[in-house]
């Protein structure tokens, strides 16, 4: 379902009136249209199939590199994401770190950020976003475990009342073999490891 830009624009105009502003003054005249275009981008994941990027898998036994079977986890760190908190409609953004323990099939690494983008492009809470990413991966590909760590800064925390500008929120979602804290400890350490 696509965002109804005309309706969003009309509602933003009403919002400006409701806060005591003049939506016809020069600085605000184009604001309703700008916000509707922004919302069309921010909420483009509503109604999209987050599993679609994972539909094409590669056999590790008979694929292009059968001599390089993974013996451990596959991890992609520092996937940039942004979303909008459903409680205040303020942005939050950060990094997603995803690891999975492959079975006989793997996916192209570019598919994982696409899953994050689709699920983040909806009104969200960080805790649910991580769980949805983990569920999508674990139910769509042949894997023995999934770990999703999200580290994000929320404008509802950094810009409202207490204004904790340096704070970030970390959430962990784990499935299969990584549901055990000991099994995921090495991966958590790798996520935090500095790059040289």
Descriptive account of the structure:
With 196 residues, this protein is of the alpha+beta class. The protein folds into two domains: 5-42, no CATH class; 57-192, GTP cyclohydrolase I, C-terminal domain/NADPH-dependent 7-cyano-7-deazaguanine reductase, N-terminal domain (GTP Cyclohydrolase I, domain 2, 2-Layer Sandwich), CATH 3.30.1130.10. It has six helices and seven strands; from the N terminus they run ααββββαβαβαβα. It has helices at 5-18, 31-42, 111-120, 126-140, 155-158, 181-192; strands spanning 57-59, 74-85, 91-102, 105-107, 123-124, 143-154, 169-176. The mean pLDDT is 91.
Main pleated sheet: 5 strands, mixed
What is the rounded Rg? Answer: 20 Å
* Overall geometry: elongated
Number of domains: 2
Share of residues in helices: 25-40%
- CATH names the topology of the largest domain as GTP Cyclohydrolase I, domain 2
State the separation between the terminal residues, measured CA to CA: 44 Å
DSSP summary: helix tally: 6
- Secondary-structure element sequence? HHEEEEHEHEHEH
CATH H-level superfamily title of the largest domain: GTP cyclohydrolase I, C-terminal domain/NADPH-dependent 7-cyano-7-deazaguanine reductase, N-terminal domain
Mean pLDDT: 91
């Amino acid at each position: 379902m696509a965002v109804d830009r005309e309706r969003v624009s009309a509602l933003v105009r009403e919002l400006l009136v409701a806060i005591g502003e003049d939506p016809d003054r020069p600085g605000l005249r184009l604001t309703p249209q700008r916000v509707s275009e922004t919302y069309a981008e921010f909420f483009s994941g509503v109604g999209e199939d987050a599993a679609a990027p994972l539909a094409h898998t590669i056999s590790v036994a008979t694929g292009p590199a059968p001599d390089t079977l993974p013996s451990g986890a596959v991890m992609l760190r520092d996937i940039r994401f942004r979303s909008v908190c459903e409680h205040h409609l303020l942005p939050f953004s950060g990094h997603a770190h995803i690891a999975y323990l492959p079975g006989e099939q793997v996916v192209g690494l570019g598919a994982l950020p696409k899953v994050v983008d689709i699920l983040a492009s909806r009104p969200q809470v960080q805790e649910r976003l991580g769980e949805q990413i983990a569920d999508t991966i674990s139910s769509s590909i042949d894997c023995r475990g999934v770990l999703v760590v999200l580290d994000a800064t929320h404008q509802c925390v950094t810009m409202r009342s207490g204004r904790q500008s340096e704070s970030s929120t970390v959430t962990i979602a784990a499935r299969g073999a990584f549901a055990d804290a000991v099994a995921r400890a090495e991966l958590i350490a790798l996520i935090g490891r500095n790059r040289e």
